[in-house]
């Protein structure tokens, strides 16, 4: 635990974590999310769990802070002490609710991290500001679509004009910050599959119950620790399920499915199975042997949507497949187009370059122990 005091020696900001959370951060700390939805009952201070997702796509808590106020100074203090506790390993990406002071602190303390604004908060704000359900639905579609940036800009201009909101301050402001929320601008930046801070909800649910009936700091800390214990118990159950049971296979690509079932956690396997089912929607339009490199290039089109094409290059030396859709770089799970080419090349397994360790049953195999972290198992 680390804390700071004010001029009167009263508690100002504090943050705590334990060795399991710190060990988890070394495996899954590539993407973090945080918000300050809840305040403690006694002093009204914001409670700020810093969370991520594990190999089962379930929420895990890396640290929790209770801060004096929501100024950029307090957020900077939290992020600075958080990174110090995590052996100065910066996250690749951060997801927040869009608080300006928080944004300022992120830019200052972790300037190289990709930043995404919570899609759930943005949709809610769209409805609150524009007050048109049709606009909110269209805005949400713009936010989530895997368009190119050029396609997004065309669509955005057309939506803004269609709803006649060109001069609305909320629309102008969000148009200017589209690189923080539009999938088109965030593609190829790694966010696992986190689009919103709704993942903080499981922790916030524990806090909501605790804060209803209890008041002291100690009550808040106990509620957080209870929530973390429940999450860890769920992880153990998911570990057991993934390692000791076999999922039902549903395609004729038996070798691929068996290989994936063996290496991936159940949750990742189900996502892979969905990719397996949908790769049949694509066909190879053109095959080009590059003279300048060792790569074979393919142009794929989608069934009934011939205009939708994807370029895939396959490097025979390294068995690397790169697709123009950039889904693998964004969510770290093979895309339908890559899988279609693997099938075409008669592969029966996934090469190591196409397997992200945070999706596998072994993702925590090299996690540091208490001894590696140089701390007692009790507290940071
Ligand atoms: Zn692709």
Descriptive report:
- With 380 residues, this protein is of the alpha+beta class.
- Helix content is 44%, strand content 19%.
- The chain folds into 2 domains: 2-234, no CATH class; 254-359, no CATH class.
- A hairpin with a 4-residue loop joins strand 11 (305-315) and strand 12 (320-323).
- The chain binds zinc ion.
- Keywords: Metal-binding, Zinc, Zinc-finger.
Work out the strand percent: 15-25%
Low-confidence stretches: none
Round the mean pLDDT to the nearest integer and report it.
88
Number of strands: 12
C-alpha end-to-end distance: 6 Å
What structural class do helix, strand and pairing data support?
alpha+beta
Order of H and E elements: EEHEEEEHEHEHHHHHHHHHEEEEHHH
Categorize the overall geometry.
Answer: globular
Alpha carbon gyration radius: 23 Å
Largest sheet entry: 8 strands, mixed
Task: Provide keyphrases for this structure.
single chain; 380 residues; 8-stranded mixed β-sheet; 4-stranded antiparallel β-sheet; metal-binding; MULE_transposase_dom; zinc ion binding
Structural topology:
Blueprint: E1 2-5, E2 11-16, H1 19-28, E3 31-34, E4 38-39, E5 46-53, E6 59-66, H2 72-85, E7 93-96, H3 100-109, E8 114-117, H4 119-130, H5 133-144, H6 149-162, H7 169-176, H8 183-186, H9 201-213, H10 217-244, H11 254-263, H12 266-278, E9 282-289, E10 295-302, E11 305-315, E12 320-323, H13 327-331, H14 336-344, H15 370-373
Parallel strand pairs: 3-7, 7-8
Antiparallel strand pairs: 1-2, 2-6, 3-5, 4-5, 5-6, 9-10, 10-11, 11-12
Helix pairs in contact: 2-3, 4-5, 5-6, 9-10, 11-12
The structure holds zinc ion.
């Amino acid at each position: 635990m680390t804390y700071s005091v004010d001029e009167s020696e009263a508690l100002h900001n504090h943050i705590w974590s334990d060795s399991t959370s710190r060990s988890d951060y070394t495996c899954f700390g590539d993407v973090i999310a945080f918000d300050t939805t809840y305040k403690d009952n006694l002093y009204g201070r914001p409670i700020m769990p810093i969370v991520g997702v594990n190999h089962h796509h379930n929420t895990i808590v890396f640290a929790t802070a209770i801060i004096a106020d929501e100024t950029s100074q307090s957020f900077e203090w939290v992020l600075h002490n958080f990174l110090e506790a995590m052996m100065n390993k910066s996250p690749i990406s951060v997801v927040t609710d869009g608080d300006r002071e928080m944004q300022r602190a992120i830019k200052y303390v972790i300037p190289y991290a990709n930043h995404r604004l919570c899609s759930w908060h943005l949709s809610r704000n769209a409805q609150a500001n524009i007050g048109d359900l049709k606009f909110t639905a269209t805005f949400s579609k713009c936010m989530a679509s895997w368009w190119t940036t050029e396609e997004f800009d065309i669509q955005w201009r057309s939506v803004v004009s269609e709803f006649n909101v060109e001069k609305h301050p909320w629309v102008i402001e969000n148009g200017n910050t589209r690189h923080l929320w539009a999938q088109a601008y965030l593609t190829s930046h790694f966010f696992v599959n986190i689009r919103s801070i709704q993942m903080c909800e499981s922790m916030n649910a524990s806090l909501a119950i605790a804060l209803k009936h209890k008041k002291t700091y100690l009550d808040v800390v106990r509620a957080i620790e209870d929530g973390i214990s429940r999450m860890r118990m769920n992880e153990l159950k998911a570990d057991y399920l993934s390692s000791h049971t076999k999922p039902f296979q549903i395609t004729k690509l038996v070798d691929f499915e068996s290989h994936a079932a063996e290496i991936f956690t159940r949750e990742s396997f189900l996502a892979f199975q969905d990719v397996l089912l949908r790769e049949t929607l694509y066909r190879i339009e053109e095959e080009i042997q590059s003279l300048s490199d060792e790569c074979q290039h393919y142009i794929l089109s989608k069934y009934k949507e011939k205009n939708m094409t994807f370029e895939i290059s396959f490097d025979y030396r390294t068995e690397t497949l790169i697709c123009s859709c950039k889904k693998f770089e964004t969510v770290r799970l093979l895309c339908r187009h890559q899988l279609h080419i693997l099938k075409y090349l008669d592969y029966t397994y996934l090469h190591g370059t196409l397997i992200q360790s945070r999706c596998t049953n072994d993702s925590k195999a090299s996690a540091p122990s208490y001894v590696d972290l140089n701390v007692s198992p009790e507290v940071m």
